[in-house]
Design goal:
The model has no long low-confidence stretch (mean pLDDT 91). This protein has four helices and three strands. It has a domain of 57 residues: 3-Layer(aba) Sandwich (YefM-like fold), CATH 3.40.1620.10. By secondary structure, the chain is an alpha+beta fold. It is elongated and about 70 Å long.
Length: 85
């Protein structure tokens, strides 16, 4: 995996895209901090790999939506103080 700065990527974009086209993965850094990764199209993500290996399973059912918020005429702090009395 190659690591390059934003300026270097900008200055030689065609060269780096050609490397990715050949299968390389490039990590883009901003002042030494990784900020992005350029991978070839069709490369499975880490999650997709784990699913394919059977390490991770997708949920059987969709998550239920959150309930509607409760509307109260007093603040939570006032309610807690009243409960403590």
């Amino acid at each position: 995996m190659t690591s390059i700065g934003i300026r270097e990527l900008r200055d030689a974009l065609s060269k780096h895209i050609a490397q990715v086209r050949e299968g390389a993965t490039i990590t883009v850094t901003d002042h030494g901090t990784p900020v992005a990764r350029i991978v070839p199209v069709g490369t499975p993500s880490a999650l997709e790999q784990l699913i394919a290996e059977g390490v991770v399973q997708l949920p059987a059912h969709r998550k239920r939506p959150a309930p509607d918020p409760v509307v109260a005429d007093v603040s939570l702090s006032e309610t807690v103080l009243a409960d403590r009395r």
